[in-house]
Design a protein that fits this description.
Blueprint lengths: L6 H14 L4 H22 L7 H19 L3 H12 L5
Helix pairs in contact: 1-2, 1-4, 2-3
Length: 92
């Protein structure tokens, strides 16, 4: 499973999951947080004009820690479901 996560697929899955409202709020918050931090990471990696400020980064880290802590309190069923949703492509 090492490096199995494709961040683009995971971001899209999390963006779609957040709009379905079929998971508990803490799982939706985790999905939303992943999407938001993915966008910031993309900016950091590919936009040389983007600036980051310590206060904002520390706030992002604190928010991520809160979202992760809430996610970890969810049932294993919901956490596994999100992982499966993020790892595997949806096929129609």
């Amino acid at each position: 499973m090492y490096r199995a996560l494709d961040h683009g697929i995971a971001k899209n899955a999390c963006a779609n999951l957040a709009s379905t409202k079929r998971f508990p709020k803490s799982v939706e918050d985790f999905a939303n947080g992943f999407v938001q931090l993915h966008a910031k990471r993309q900016g950091a990696d590919y936009d040389p004009t983007q600036r980051f400020y310590k206060r904002a980064v520390l706030k992002d880290i604190a928010n991520a820690m809160l979202v992760i802590a809430a996610f970890q309190k969810e049932s294993a069923r919901h956490r596994r479901s999100l992982v499966a949703h993020a790892l595997f492509r949806q096929r129609n």
